[in-house]
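Batch 3, record 17
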Amino acid sequence: MNLLEVKNLKVHFPVKHGLFSRVKAHVKAVDDVSFTIQPGETLGLVGESGCGKTTLGRAIVKLVEPTAGSIYFEGEDIAQLSGAELRARRRKFQMIFQDPYGSLNPRMTVGQIIGEAIDIHQLAESSSARQKRIMELLKAVGLDPIHAQRYPHEFSGGQRQRIGIARALAVEPKLIVCDEPVSALDVSVQAQIINLLQDLQQQRGLAYLFIAHDLAVVEHISRRVMVMYLGKVVELAEAKAIIRTPKHPYTQALISAVPEVDPDSKRKRIVLPGDVPSPINPPSGCPFHPRCPIAQAPICQVDVPSLREVTPGHWAACHFAK
Amino acid sequence: METSPQPSATEAIAKADLAIASPWQVFWRRLRRHRTAMFGAVILVILYLTALFAGFIAPYGYERQDRERFFHRPMALRFQGGLAVQQYEPAPGSSKYQAVKGEVQRIHFFVRGDKYNLFGFIPSTLHLFGSGDPKHPINLLGTDQYGRDIFSRLLYGSQISLSIGLIGIVLRFGLGMVMGGISGYFGGKIDSFIMRFCELIMSIPALYLIMSLRATFPANLSSTQVYLLIIAILSFIGWASSARVIRGMALSLRERQFVLAARTLGQRDRHVILKHILPGTFSYVIVAATLSVPYYILGEVVLSFLGVGIQEPDASWGIMLNAAQNPEYLTNYPWLLAPGVAIFITVLAFNFLGDGLRDAVDTKS
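Prediction for the assembled complex:
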């Protein structure tokens, strides 16, 4: 069974203007996205800034309300849940945030931060059991249990990210949405955090939705990778397949932008013309057609390409993908 | 390296200095280095202690009238075989008093005198000092138009004037934080509703609002009731502007990732506001609260001055200044302005402390 199945998910933010807050338009941050995640799997999610990957991640953990569509978690639609019912389910899906400085309350000790997670779902019978759990969690993420007494400002960025991971683990989730968890870290520390995430995945059978804009990182950690452009999924395939044989022209451009060490490499850099269009008023037809090197009138301007299985297990949303 | 720190020399030094410094400890350390703030704080501690022990320190009760001595001038302390003051006697045929040459009135310590209740409930007659001679009272700051000792009344008055500020800011910022926190955290219609209500309150001129609110209550209230009423009225007017600022802070805090993390964990909205949002506004609240204490002290003064506040014979700095509004009194008996000096010192001390608090919470410097 799928751990997570997202079906036709839409997140639109109203744009309000004027005295009486008339809704003028909608920002289509996530527009008709569907995918699944298996238990223990890592699904990578890449795309440039503003393509809706963070909004998608937040919608899955219900930090933003989906406008339409459904999110089946262990077979149950959580998209419409709210209140106490939702709070009880929240244990199962957690989030790790991008900013290791902003994701920890500066006024709480590490012990209090992790303890809060334990208290919310009453996961410890006694205060000594609670204390023991905090210690175990700190050890599990490679921190000294003594650090429970300290405040976030006393830690380095990598250590804070470990604290954030410990907090997410405290409630024993099955899925963790990692929202660019290593983007703010040094390269050497990035590797440590990614290794930690992989170790934890093996030990605890966690599934990750790993959001990043660094293709190398995503390729390393993910089994499958999903590429987003302007709120839509344009390609979804095995990590290796996406890197070696990208089917969608946008993915091809993305991959060509990854710097290579080999000076003899003959790979040509594909430079896309123009900027990402506004998600308030996206282009008709294929949202990528104004920048696409292979777009053809009129089909690309009129027909929205659906995400289709081009080769087994390799999905792309392009009329010309082969 | 990154996971379990090895104890190195530099780290040991860092540990000794910053070992588990909570944000509050850092804040306290910075505040202590601020000289004017500590000066203000010391003055305030002294003022509040004297207010607490007013009955003991004051030589006379606040109601005690000496019909022999209206508008007696202040008596200077001198040292003549112990602390003493010049003896005065009424000058025949006028309302003036003249010094009795060569006669001094010794000041005795721990004398029995007027009854009072220490802290409001311990009955006592012991006073810190007094003359021990009813014919020659000690009026350090002179007497008023009823022959009451201004020094004693100043101390009793400080109980009202100083506590009104403290209770006032608790009410004002308590309400401001609850309403501002709810407004900013939830946003949308709740936010609009609360903020429009705040603007409604703020758009009415404060003095008219005070007067009309006061007018809705019966005129013959006891002083305690009036005292509570004044606090309630001033807080009711003041909370709106605090709520607006706190709402703005809550609006930005709710997008912070640690707030999102708490929501993802399934924390209740109430707890998110109390544990994560409102503590983030403390830095503003502490400073603003300190700086708005004078507003309550002056508010009481204004209300009592206008005759709708504390009523005679009870003492407050405002009602004492009320007596000084007669220009004839002012020119002839300037010591009636003593409560004005006390207000000045208190307001200044609060502003000193507030400035220091603002510097201490400003983590950018």
